Amino acid sequence: MTKGDFVNIMFFFGLLCNSALFAFIQIDLLLMYNHYKSMEPWWFWSVFTIGINFFDAVMILVLLSCRDILLLHKLESQFLARRSKKLRVGELK
Predict the structure, then answer these.
(1) I want to staple 66 with a disulfide (CB 3.0 to 4.6 A). Which of 3, 21, 31, 59 is the partner?
(2) pTM of the full structure
């Protein structure tokens, strides 16, 4: 995997997370506007604020450094190693 591919994947992941948070906050605001819930702030607003800023910062750091800030590549390789080990054990039975 080249650095360009890695940056593209990280940007896609960051934008996907930002989009999901934005969609959830819009649904929350729609429910409040239609009086299905109260207009009081709750924990998701804090998650939204911190989450959006966190993923924006991660995308900027990845763009500038071209490194795996969240260690997703290491996590992926561990997951694939465990999966292949389970498949090999299952084939032996």
Answers:
(1) 3
(2) 0.71
pLDDT of residue 46: 93
Q: What is the dihedral of CA 39, 44, 46, 51, to 10 degrees?
A: -140
CA distance 63 to 15: 13
**CA 41, chain centre distance (Å):** 23
Tokens matching residue 76 = 């992926």
Non-local CB neighbours of 69 within 8 Å, separated by 6+ positions:
10, 58, 61, 62
* Contact in structure between 62 and 7 (CB atoms under 8 Å): yes
DSSP the chain: --HHHHHHHHHHHHHHHHHHHHHHHHHHHHHHHTTSS-S---HHHHHHHHHHHHHHHHHHHHHHH-S-TT-HHHHHHHHHHHHHHHHHHHHH-
